[in-house]
Amino acid sequence: MNDLFSLKQSVAIVTGGNGGIGKGIARGFASMGADVAIVARNSPKTASAVTEIREEFGVRALGLLFDVTDEKAVQQMTEEVLRELGRIDILVNNAGMNIRKMPQDYEASEWDQVMAGNLRSAFLCSKWVYPAMKTAGGGKIINIGSMTSYFGGAKLGPYSASKGGIVQMTRSLACAWAEDNIQVNAILPGWIDTELTRQARKDIEGLHEKVIARTPRGRWGEPQELGGAAIFLASAASDFVTGIALPVDGGFSSNIL
Ligand SMILES: NC(=O)c1ccc[n+]([C@@H]2O[C@H](COP(=O)([O-])OP(=O)(O)OC[C@H]3O[C@@H](n4cnc5c(N)ncnc54)[C@H](OP(=O)(O)O)[C@@H]3O)[C@@H](O)[C@H]2O)c1
Q: Cα(83) to centroid of ligand 1, in Å?
């Protein structure tokens, strides 16, 4: 039964895995025996996450500096993972960003930037890992959505569009690749304490307290708390689960007030 959740002999790519939620998930995978490739752009931050994971869990860890919005870079990234780690069993599309503005204030280029950072990147990485997963006889893709996959917000136009898109794309990829034994699912984090939300808490007065009041668990989530759901969706335990969007939100999306 324990083997159901084992990730030994597996190789996982985690985009944006050098900090925040991505690092929480990469650490969770490593704790279950997976080798991990962390893809991000900041060199020292990536090197430090790779060293931390290697030393703490004794797995192979690889840091790769690529912009996942660039298709050529994504192609090179998958080739490098295959060359260095030999296979790709799991992909977590976690890299993401936001620009907060009222709808009327966005430049078209800013809309494109958010959509590319959150949605195009997840599509491109999925497209480029697909051949390796198909050849290997299966795989697991996990897309990171958000509570804004369900809810909107005045300054969340492109972000919520991209995260709503993550859920719909997840369903379509799940249907397309079911026959290849590739399960595609989404995780929808609630409010998690990371660099992204530390900035939001500076920008939005009262956000910290509002989140605590609305979240039945009565607190913000920690990045490592996404690890359990990610391990489930990356392991044999979820072999008949595909196309779902799993909230990990302390009850936020169940609470009307
Ligand atoms: N924190 C929350 O409450 C929350 C809630 C719901 C959903 N999410 C989602 O969870 C994911 C992780 O967010 P987080 O809060 O952990 O934020 P974070 O700490 O800012 O992490 C984002 C990561 O993505 C990487 N990244 C961004 N754009 C990239 C690109 N073009 N190419 C490669 N790497 C890129 C960044 O690394 P580099 O700067 O080194 O490239 C960084 O490691 C995002 O998709 C976010 O939308 C977060």
A: 26
Look at the pTM and tell me if it is higher than 0.70.
yes
CB 16 within 8 A of CB 46: no
Task: Please indicate whether residue 41, judged by its CB atom, sits closer than 6 Å to ligand 1.
Answer: yes
Instruction: Note down the domain range covering 204.
Output: 2-250
In tens, the pLDDT along 78-91 reads 999 999 999 999 99
The mean per-residue pLDDT over the stretch 118-125 comes to 99
Half-sphere exposure of 184 (CA within 13 A, CB side): 27
In a domain, 18, yes or no: yes
**CATH at 69:** 3.40.50.720
Pocket test for ligand 1, best of 46, 115, 196 (most atoms within 8 A of CB): 196
Closest ligand 1 atom to residue 191 Cα is 3
Could you give the 3-state DSSP secondary structure of residue 213?
helix
What is the domain count for the chain? 1
Residue-wise pLDDT for 53-72, tens only, equals: 999 999 999 999 999 999 99
Token pair in block for residue 159: 């972000």
126 assigned to some structural domain: yes
